[in-house]
Design goal:
globular; homodimer; about 35% strand; about 180 residues; 9 strands
């Protein structure tokens, strides 16, 4: 991602947080992560994250999804023998998000995917989340999501985040944390 | 607590959530807990809670604190031999909250307590939280908090909530969940 693209997406993320009336400190604003999953196509495939807390016991963050932006399909596998995969509760705070997971596929899903990516999305059970609505994704369950026309701000409450072990359907995806 | 008091506090809670721009479903509005800790003095000692999720892995809720209302001093002891007590991250969303925990006591604390209750508050290390600011309370650590002049809305991210096992300094406190 070009530095100027990163900068523009960061500004847009702060603007969506502002629309959602979510207060962030200047230090937090600087720590927002713009994740392009190694695909360098941030406006179509990507996600913006502000992590509040992540430790062995729990994790809380805001997810900011640009209009029409898609977080690629993935699952959170078990961690070792005794720890089940990450469980996540998504709570929509602002905007609208189309969430897809395992189960009966939607006949006419709201999300639209670019043809180039479509084969990497295999689950189509649709949950539409509007402000105040939430959904919990069980461990090790495939899911992906797309922001609505105005984008979305979603609080994620979960067990510990260990992004490096996430399993993506698209083998081109690289989920790494930026240096620094 | 009289039913009409409960009803008025519930309305005030919804009004504070509205000021904080936190969307809640009608079902959630009906499920808000008004906790008077058995002291029947809700405007001075109490707390309002909207639980989003609480299971073995994590808990997330909004705490609504009326202007000048105080949540009594308590700690979360270990659960059995292998589970440390509840750990909590408080993130102020709106208003101002004065949080007190173990450590160097404040010389001129912001919180004011009615004389009748004062002996049940023993820790005075002060953390002031304004919107966007957060603080994590370690397990089994005494703490209490009071809402500022306008009240406060605080997101709590934590390990599992098991309120029934909380240990309060005031032995008159009864922390029970309302029937139904």
């Amino acid at each position: 991602m070009k530095p100027e693209t990163n900068q523009r997406v960061r500004q847009q993320t702060l603007e969506l947080l502002r629309k959602a009336h979510i207060a962030v400190t200047p230090e937090e604003a600087g720590a927002i992560e713009v994740a392009d999953f190694g695909l360098d196509d941030i406006r179509r495939i990507g996600l913006e994250l502000l992590v509040y807390r992540n430790d062995e016991r729990y994790c809380a963050k805001e997810l900011v999804i640009l209009p029409g932006q898609t977080c690629p399909e993935h699952r959170h596998p078990p961690r070792g023998e005794h720890t089940p995969g990450k469980q996540e509760t998504f709570r929509c705070r602002w905007g609208e998000v189309y969430l897809y997971t395992e189960g009966e596929p939607a006949v006419a899903p709201k999300a639209a995917l670019p043809a180039a990516y479509r084969e990497n999305f295999t689950v189509w059970h649709e949950i539409i989340l509007r402000p105040g609505e939430q959904y919990t994704i069980p461990p090790d369950t495939l899911h992906w999501f797309q922001g609505g026309a105005k984008g979305a701000v979603v609080s994620e409450f979960s067990s510990k985040s260990v992004d490096e072990t996430d399993v993506f359907t698209d083998r081109n995806v690289r989920r790494v944390h930026p240096a620094g």
